[in-house]
Amino acid sequence: MSAALPPVIVLVRPQLGENIGKAARAMLNFGLTELRLVTPRDGWPNPDAGPASAGADIVLAEAEVFGSLADAVADCTTIYATTVRKRGVMKPVLTPEAAAREVHASAGRSAYVFGAERSGLETDDVALAHAIVTVPINPEFASLNLAQAVILLAYEWSKGIALASPPEVPLDPPAPHAELEEFIQHLTRDLDASGYFVPPERTEATLRTLRTALTKTGWSHNDIRMMHGIITALGRTPRPR
Fold this sequence. Notes:
about 240 residues; Alpha/beta knot; alpha/beta
């Protein structure tokens, strides 16, 4: 796993407090905690950010405010501008995955820079960066919101660190074939008693089809025991309600 410093998330001229909160929530889900704000429109702190962060209080409490993007990334050695367009500036263009690999390989501090909700990053913002990060997206509908963009980059970065994995649910081991065969015989007897095999000359072909279907599923011991109980119950005389 990577020992490089985690990237900082820089929001340039963010407009709505709730969008800052949602970005903080996206960050903390994937282990990022350092948020920097460049001239937020409504000032900082913003009362709308907390509820939208869904508990990512540590990110908001430690967020720093800067008067310019240059000040916000002054301590960073590699700066990635996130934008769907190059905006006339010739820079290397990376996917989020490629950018994450570079961040993990870097010995310095990296920054992911995001623009305002409506207009994105300006040309001067992009010019300050070392590379552009662009998400492969539907060209006919390139409409990611701020938190979505943050979560995409944060997720790709998180692949290189040890986050908790979803718990594995143990599966029942498959039953031995003898148990499945016993169930098939049970089912066959009850189907025969109910008059299922019509016409009689198709019985062999029907049984073959039935066996083929039942041997595909990988039944466990508990599956087979349950099915025995279901077939037995179906064969009983219904009790009056």
